[in-house]
């Protein structure tokens, strides 16, 4: 079989992309002769290329296992780095595995850079368990933005819930002082937003004010993903479109499902990244799509557990992610945003 020389492929690719492409192909002669093009760089998708640094479990869907598949369904190339690799999530009686440290994370980044593979449109981070690893994340943000100044950094500041921290206390100040200023979008829950702002969120007004405080620190988009208000759940979103103008703020009422699920926060943040990139000036629409997907998935999960005869309130439930692929790709919007005046 006659094979086309690599150099011809690259020349054709360069002509195809032209000068308008943001994805600049490195012109090292040695590189061009030694390697075929990485197509996610040479022929990028219309959506983008995401570096996702989160936890990983062999069984179940949390962290990257909960985020990568949905983003791929929405058309993104996703490169996962697993901050931990555990047999299962930590809610089980036992778990085994390994934890990546900051030096090991940086080794992976250096390896990508050495091969001209470090162009990303988005960075997504979730659970991070140590200050040293979080400080390395900051180095990663700086490195990625030196290559693509337009990088969007979506940060889920996973620190705790229901009034309890499950990371070391010193991570709160690192998030507050160093991470928030470089984030493009922030997706805390109610407890995390309180930790980051020092405000108690006891009303919708408090939630909106917390968003304003976080905007002032850096991010243009803030979504408090779950606010418990008088027994009801709200998502409160805020998008600062123009400097000097008040942000556009909205809420989505979310029905409570009588069960506890793992991985839903990681899924929600991934979907907010995916849909907000498709609707860059309409965070309300992105949030409607994300919430509708998650609620459909949770209802399917609950129904399937009940059908198997399981007591859904006896322990946390593993989400039915793969079975909900249609609800992720093409959600029926049943939960609408209400804009605040």
From TrEMBL:
GO terms under biological process: pyridoxal 5'-phosphate salvage
EC number annotated for this UniProt entry: 2.7.1.35
A cellular-component GO term for this protein: cytosol
Cross-referenced Pfam families: Phos_pyr_kin
Record carries keyword Metal-binding: no
InterPro entries to which the protein is assigned, alphabetical: PM/HMP-P_kinase-1 (IPR013749), PyrdxlKinase (IPR004625), Ribokinase-like (IPR029056)
Residues annotated as domain Pyridoxamine kinase/Phosphomethylpyrimidine kinase: 129-274
Highest taxon of the lineage: Eukaryota
Coiled-coil region list: none
UniProt family annotation: Belongs to the pyridoxine kinase family.
Protein name: pyridoxal kinase
Organism: Lithospermum erythrorhizon (Purple gromwell)
């Amino acid at each position: 079989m006659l094979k086309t020389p690599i150099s011809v492929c690259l020349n054709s690719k360069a002509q195809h992309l032209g000068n308008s492409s943001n994805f600049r192909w490195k012109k090292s002669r040695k590189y061009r002769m030694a390697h075929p093009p990485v197509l996610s760089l040479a022929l990028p998708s219309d959506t983008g290329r995401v570096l996702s640094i989160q936890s990983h479990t062999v069984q179940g869907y949390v962290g990257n296992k909960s985020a990568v598949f949905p983003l791929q369904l929405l058309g993104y190339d996703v490169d996962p780095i697993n901050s931990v690799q555990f047999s299962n999530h930590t809610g089980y009686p036992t778990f085994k595995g390994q934890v990546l440290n900051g030096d090991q994370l940086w080794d992976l980044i250096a390896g990508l850079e050495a091969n001209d593979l470090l162009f990303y449109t988005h960075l997504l981070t979730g659970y991070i368990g140590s200050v040293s690893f979080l400080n390395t994340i900051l180095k990663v943000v700086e490195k990625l933005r030196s290559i693509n100044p337009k990088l969007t950094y979506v940060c889920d500041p996973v620190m705790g819930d229901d009034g309890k921290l499950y990371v070391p206390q010193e991570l709160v100040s690192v998030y507050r002082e160093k991470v928030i200023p470089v984030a493009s979008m922030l997706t805390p829950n109610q407890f995390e937003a309180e930790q980051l702002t020092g405000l108690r969120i006891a009303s919708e007004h408090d939630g909106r004010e917390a968003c304003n405080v976080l905007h002032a620190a850096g991010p243009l988009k803030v979504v408090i993903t779950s606010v418990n208000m008088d027994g009801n759940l709200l998502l409160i979103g805020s998008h600062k479109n123009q400097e000097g103008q008040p942000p556009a703020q909205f809420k989505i009422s979310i029905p409570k499902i009588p069960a506890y699920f793992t991985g839903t926060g990681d899924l929600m943040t991934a979907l907010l990244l995916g849909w907000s990139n498709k609707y860059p000036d309409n965070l309300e629409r992105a949030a409607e799509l994300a919430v509708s997907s998650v609620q459909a998935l949770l209802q399917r999960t609950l129904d399937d557990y009940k059908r198997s005869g399981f007591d859904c309130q006896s322990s946390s439930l593993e989400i039915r992610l793969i079975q909900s692929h249609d609800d992720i790709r093409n959600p029926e919007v049943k939960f609408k945003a209400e804009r605040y005046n």
